[in-house]
Structures are given as C-alpha cells and as structure tokens.
Amino acid sequence: MSKNFLYQFNWFLIAFSLIATVINPYLGGITLYLWFFLIFFDFSFIQKLKYIPRKFLILMLLWLSYCLLKLNFSDAFKISALFLGVGYLCLMDKEIYPKLKAAFYISCLFCIVQFVFYWINPTFSSSIAGSNLSATIWGEKLATPGYVNQYEVLFLPRMGGLSREAGFFASLVIIMALIIYTREKTNIKEKTIHLSAYIFSLSKVSFSNLIIVILFPFRKLINKIPLALTFIFISLTFILVAFFLKMDANHFGVYNESLAHRFSSSFLIPKMGIQEFLIGCFDYSTCQILNNSNLINDLLDNQLYPNTGINGVFVDFGLLGFLLLIFSYWWLGLKSFDILILSVMTATVSVYTIDNFVILTYYFIFTYRKYFN
C-alpha cells in the first residue's frame, strides 16, 4: 500500500467525518469528531505547522487564557478545536478541498435518497437520517444527537443529508456553494445535485443565508466600512429586533422557540448585570439583573443556550470578549463583508461552535480571495 494512497485515504476520512456529522460517535456528553483525531495522523500537516502565522497562535492563546480564567473548560475545548480545524483546512487547502467536495456530494445524494423514499417508504427515509442513522452505525448509546424533523416547508419535506438535522444541512449547502463556485466551474450534474439538495433541505436558514449570495457582488463596497462599525451595527440591529419582537412576553420562547433562540443573546445583553456585562455570564439562568421574563429558562429547559451569533460572544465573554473578537478578526485581516457572512451563518449557533458549516465558513472567508476576484 503506497504512502500516497494512505495520505489520500486519510484526507478523505478527515473530510467525510467533518461533512457527515452523524458518523461521529457521542460519548460522555460530547460528540467525538473523528476528524479532530485523524488530523494528527496527517504527517504532511504536521510538517506544515511551522507555516502557521504567529498571530494565529497568539490569538488562540489569548482566547484559551480567557476561557481558563473563567474556568470555562467547555468553550476552551471548542475554541481549541475550532482553531485546529480552521488551521488545518487553510494549511491543507489544495489537498483537502477535493475531498471536502466529494464528501459534500455524498451527503447531498443521501439527502436526495431521503427525499425520494419519504414518498415511497417514510420509515426507511427517517431510518437513514439524523440520530437514527448514527444509531445504526454506533448503537443507541453512542449515537450522536440529531433530529429527523422531516416536516414540510413550502409543501416539501426537508431532509438533512448526513448532517445533524435539516437546518444544519441547509447551512452546509449554502457555504459549500460559496466555496465551490468561487473556485471552479461545475458541470450540469454537479449543479443539479447541489440545487436538489438546496430545495430538499429548505429551512428558514435557506432563505436568510441567501443574503450572503445576494450581497456578494457588493462585497468590495461593504468592505469599505470599518470593521468595528460593522460589528457595532450588526450587534445593535439584533438587539433592536429582539426588543421589537417583545420577547418579554410570557413564555415567548415556548411558542416561538426557533425565533427566540436566534435572538436570545441579543435579548439578554441589555438585561445583564455590570459584572456579567464586562466579563460575561457564568450561569445563563442567573445572568439577568432585570429578570422579568421566563424566556431564557424556557430555552434552557430545551437545552438551547443564549449564545447565538456575534452577540453570543458578548453573553459568554462580556464587553472584554467582544472587543477581543473585534481585535482578533481585524488582526487576522478579515473585512466587513466577512463579518456579515459570519453573522448570518452563525445566527442559530455560537461563532466558536465546531459544527461543520461554521468551520467551513471560516475556511471560506480566509481563502476565497485567493481564487475569486
């Protein structure tokens, strides 16, 4: 067995375990992402570690130090994994991209099969989706959490491919479209698979994420806006929307769970005490000094946390963490349009979660300028 074959095989396994979330096991309350461990068996990557920019390592150290000072070991691990995953994709760009593309199309084909069998044999369709498929691979005890929520959106059932659930797959479809179509021309077969996956996974994020595609031609104009102003504008916009939604209403989060979760961090910021405002919340349930709403507790009851989007960094790390985030992105050379992409793609998750579409979003904003002018 040749050395080149082993490298190629490992690169595919890394790409596939990143794209296909459901093939990763779940142990001790965390998903064990196989790509995290396989990376250390890629000796070509180990040899390239010397090319990692020093500023990248300094920023990782700053964020880890902040997490450890707060005794926030969970976020410390997530941020470490995020830095590792994004660093790996950027360093191994030419080697890993074809494998990511292949793994993505496999997930798209699963989505299409799930959609077809939804009409023929719904039981089989749900058995090869989300946590059901993971349970088939790992058994009930080690199955990674997911949702087989194949309800209809615009008269079509939504499928999740090999992702945790349909909404996450819809985000993956959008970001992979940006990665692929800014790098190369594709044939009709690839476009058909991609379009089918988009239609068959229609979710709320399928429409909101189109903002990125619509604004992409105007990126140079948007990039003229100072980075800090873009951060402030996005943050305040989300806070104002949360205010006008009247999320203080009794059990708003029960009757509008998805909407409440998206804007929960923006809802919480004006209600934080001085200490929490400066360094972030230690306990979400007691973070509000103006505790006149049951929204946060209702979300926590369903294991939904108020740390979504850019404002989620404010909730978790306070004003100091928010300023560190602005500094980090500025020092890494990101522009206002990059922040817009990130804020849209992470509207339902934290900006440092390690779900595949978030890692791939960072990969995209760090690399697309090399391929698309």
Structure in words:
This protein has helices at residues 3-19, 34-38, 43-48, 54-69, 73-91, 93-120, 122-127, 130-138, 166-181, 188-200, 204-208, 210-215, 219-222, 227-244, 252-255, 257-262, 264-268, 274-279, 295-301, 309-331, 336-345, 356-371, and strands at 26-27, 30-31, 152-153, 156-157. With 373 residues, the protein is mainly alpha-helical. The model has no long low-confidence stretch (mean pLDDT 88). The strands form two sheets. It has a two-stranded antiparallel sheet. A two-stranded antiparallel sheet has the order 3-4. The protein is built from 22 helices and four strands. It folds into two domains: 3-52 and 92-216, no CATH class; 224-334, no CATH class. Helix content is 66%, strand content 2%.
Could you give a quick summary of the protein structure above?
The protein has 373 residues and is an all-alpha fold.
